[in-house]
Every structure is written in structure tokens, then in C-alpha cells.
Amino acid sequence: LETNIYFYYAGHGSPSKNKKAYLLPADGDPNYIEDTGVEISSLYEDLSSLGAKSVTVFLDACFSGANRQTDEQPEMLLADARPVFIETEKVINNKINIFAAAQGNQVSSAWPEKKHGLFSYFLMKGLKGEADKNKDKKITYDELGQYIRKEVKRRSGMLDREQDPTFDF
User: Fewer Cβ within 10 Å of end Cβ, the chain: N or C?
Assistant: First the structure.
């Protein structure tokens, strides 16, 4: 039990017809999400079963069925679809730490000038040292989560969007 697992995903998430959260890989089809996507609850179960000391998941995705916002309105992954906002399932497991880009009723925003999602950009800046609030050269989950939440919320507001990252550990 000495291994720490870090799982990072940046891309599309999508709800299934039964409103379960799925990650949509590059070769996935949102029309057949149950067959071509990865169900979040199954991913968490699989990661939990590996027997690691800890698992940290970073998700720069939303599960509304919308593409990242680059204009005023999000573009839907499926033509003529309406946004379906769902909450990703909380995991009752003290070995999984989850950092998510947005709440279930929000779209995970892009920052075109930086060529990243807002969450990914500030995650990387935070891990690089910006999140070390007390300057002890150690970044705690709480410091990282607070930093990401503050910076993403601030920047998304400047882009006339609302995005509140969540963290559960």
C-alpha cells in the first residue's frame, strides 16, 4: 500500500439516457455513450479496487452534454439536445480524492488564449507552486482545492461565465 494513483482527464463528459455521468473518449460517440464512454461510478470502483494507498482524480469535464463554452452559448455534443445537468456521484471512500472542474449544473469553460480548460490551467499553476499558500514548499489537497476554486471562479466571472470547481477528499 505504498502506491498513490493520480488520474487526470480533460475532455467531454456526457449524461446517459438514465442520467448517469460518463466520460466521453476521443473515439467515443455521444449517441452511444453507454457503449463508447466510461461510466464515472465504474471508474471510481475500479480505481478503489486497485489497493493503492490513495487515489486522486482530476476531472476537467462537465456532464451537461454541452461542449466547452467558447462563445456566449454552449454548443451541444448531440444535435438538438437540451442540456441535462446531473451531479456526479460522491464516493464514500476515504482513499479517493476528487477534484472536478464544475458543479453538476455548470459547463466546464475553456480559456482559448491559454489553450486549456480553466480548471486544467489553474490545476497546473497550483501544482507548480502557486497553491502553496503558507510557502512551506508542500501543497496540501486543501491548498490546491482552495486555489483552483478561487482562480477558476474569478477567471470564469471575467469571461461572463459561472464555474465553481468542487473537491471532495
Answer: N
